[in-house]
Design goal:
Blueprint: H1 3-11, H2 16-40, H3 47-53, H4 56-87, E1 88-89, H5 93-99, H6 108-118, H7 124-133, H8 149-160, H9 162-174, H10 177-185, H11 190-219, H12 222-226, H13 232-242, H14 246-270, E2 289-290, H15 293-329, H16 333-366, H17 370-379, H18 387-413, H19 426-449, H20 453-461, H21 466-477, H22 479-495, H23 498-503, H24 511-521, H25 528-545
Parallel strand pairs: 1-2
Helix pairs in contact: 2-14, 2-16, 2-17, 2-18, 4-8, 4-9, 4-11, 4-13, 6-8, 6-15, 9-11, 10-11, 11-14, 13-14, 14-18, 15-25, 16-17, 16-19, 16-22, 18-19, 19-22, 20-21, 22-25, 24-25
């Protein structure tokens, strides 16, 4: 058979164009990693030796300690709170179910910024404690400094535990009540049921939640820097910005990528033999155990502690400071400009991310198999990379492209284009797309998987083309999944600090970069309105997630494609 005939037949295979476009998108995501590797190879021969003797040992040790601490705190908080609201019936349980999600609305750098002021040695909290204990000065009594590894672990843990709470709660909700009843008839107590049955069955969900929390920890740059913890992410930022050493920053970024790969491998190893199946037609949910009034109050109080520490105290502080700022100076025009910049960048990134995610997800539907599955994995790998790493890779790729376009324009047209991509904000949109394409593709793929294949056959038998089936059947039926994914992507783009901080054009500030700048200068109150705006916007996905599991059914995860 001639090659041209084979190629023509290949192009006629169902979904071949979708698969091709999916491959192009995967290459777009992989380009920053390739650029990072090329830049790292430019470093001098003695650079690695210098990094190993100065920067990497401290950064690596601090990173490992932080990851271990945050992993333990999020696992304990997320698992115990999930069991609490799914195993026991007590007053306020339904409110606590969704209230436990609220810390998701507080980015890590905001909680660090808030608690640095709340727990200041001459602040109101420590002042009140000294007054109650009869002390007059911080020299006589002061709480341990929140600027420490312990403070960073606890603050990040109280913000990130919902990553464990959400999948673990969903797993507890779907566990068969028949197993629990069988265990109870054998004389096993409720506490032993948790340790011997419920928790082992929920280990895959716990492992997934911990891995996501640790990835968010690795992505953090603001909280760790504010709290004096020199992680690898902070070292990348300081090496690039402070020392103007892009090859050195690239090499540290590659080392951090190895840590991320190790985390993902460890998570999959932890649940390698975890398999559980049940007959959904015959199983029933676990019955809630009614508890006494005093025990119910104890459970409610215990569940509210992480909510108050992870959301209540920072939100109250930001509201108070924002009101003081408003009364003193009103709404600054600078805040309005930052609101426009924040919304514009987040909207552009969301539109691009949802469009590309739709292509990648639809390719897995029309061309199921190992090719589309691997392309989906490559296209969504950016979610596992910290924003600082993605930003360096994007800068290297687009800076080279800018130079090529500029030289070509000068040679052919005699006109310099300058920094066409980096100077226009396209670099920020590119970085955000690489970071959050997993949320888009995963959420849309989950929505498409709910549409039975029989509808495709019915549509084609009625004369619709593949494009018509996509436009008139799949898009309308997956609209809810697309909207939910768009909301999650938009809010993540608003909260994202590292990529926006490093790639934004000159004189362009967003809420996140404004907050970082004021916190770095120690003028926390100046950024309270911006911080409160970020928290207010971030509550939107919390409202969406609060509806998951109300009917004791598991909703598809927007990050399912990572697994």
């Amino acid at each position: 058979m001639p090659i041209s005939s084979a190629a023509a037949r290949l192009t006629k295979r169902p979904g071949s164009r979708w698969l091709t476009f999916s491959g192009i998108i995967a290459l777009i995501v992989v380009f920053p990693v390739a650029g990072l590797l090329m830049e790292a190879l430019k470093g001098s021969a003695g650079l690695w030796a210098h990094l190993f003797s100065t920067t990497l040992p401290v950064a690596l040790v601090d990173t490992v300690i932080l990851l271990l601490g945050v992993g333990v705190v999020t696992a304990v908080l997320g698992t115990t709170t999930a069991w609490m609201v799914t195993a026991y019936e007590f007053p306020g349980r339904r409110v606590l179910e969704w209230a436990l999600l609220l810390p998701l609305a507080v980015p890590t750098y905001i909680i660090a910024y808030a608690y640095l002021d709340i727990l200041h040695p001459i602040g109101s909290v420590q002042g009140a404690i000294r007054w109650m204990l009869g002390y007059d000065s911080p020299r006589q009594f002061r709480l341990p400094d929140v600027r420490s590894m312990t403070g960073c672990i606890l603050l990040l843990g109280f913000v990130l535990y919902p990553y464990v709470y959400i999948p673990t709660r969903a797993m507890f909700l779907t566990q068969s009540g028949n197993l629990i009843d069988a265990a109870r008839t054998l004389g096993i107590s409720r506490r032993a049921v948790f340790w011997r049955i419920a928790l082992p069955l929920a280990r895959p969900a716990v492992a997934v939640g911990i891995s996501l929390a640790l990835m968010e920890t690795l992505n953090d740059v603001g909280a760790a820097e504010f709290l004096g913890v020199r992680t690898m992410t902070v070292s990348i930022y300081t090496t690039w910005i402070t020392r103007s050493d892009l090859p050195g920053a690239s090499q540290i970024a590659l080392a951090l990528l190895l840590v991320v790969v190790a985390l993902v491998a460890l998570e999959r190893w932890a649940r390698r033999k975890q398999r559980y199946a049940t007959d959904a037609r015959r199983s029933r949910g676990m019955a809630l155990q009614q508890v006494s009034a005093w025990k119910g109050m104890l459970l409610l109080f215990s569940g509210l502690i992480p909510v108050l520490l992870g959301f209540g105290a920072p939100a109250l502080y930001l509201t108070t400071e924002a009101w003081k700022r408003y009364q003193f100076a009103g709404i600054s025009p600078r805040i309005l400009d930052e609101a426009v910049n924040t919304i514009a960048i987040a909207t552009a990134a969301t539109v691009v991310t949802i469009g590309l995610g739709l292509v990648v997800a639809y390719a897995t539907r029309v061309r199921p198999g190992p090719k589309s599955s691997w392309l989906l994995r490559f296209a969504t790998m950016g979610y596992a990379a910290p924003g600082t790493v993605v930003a360096i890779g994007v800068l290297i790729v687009l800076a080279g492209l800018d130079r090529f376009i500029d030289r070509t324009a000068i040679a052919w047209l005699g006109v310099s284009t300058g920094l066409l991509f980096i100077g226009s904000g396209a670099a920020v949109v590119y970085a955000l797309t690489v970071r959050f394409l997993a949320i888009s593709a995963g959420g849309i793929e989950a929505g498409l998987s709910r549409i039975p294949g029989s509808l495709d056959h019915a549509s084609r038998s009625l004369g619709q083309s593949r494009a018509g089936t996509f436009l008139h059947v799949h898009l309308p039926l997956s609209r809810a999944a697309i909207s939910a994914a768009a909301l999650l992507v938009f809010v993540d783009c608003v909260k994202e600090l590292p990529a926006t901080l490093l790639l934004r054009p000159l004189n362009v500030e967003t809420f996140a970069t404004h907050l970082y700048g004021e916190a770095a200068r120690g003028t926390y109150e100046e950024a309270s309105i911006a911080a409160l705006a970020i928290v207010a916007i971030s509550i939107l996905p919390v409202i969406l997630l609060s509806q998951v599991g109300r009917s004791r059914a598991v909703a598809p995860s927007p990050i399912g494609s990572l697994q």
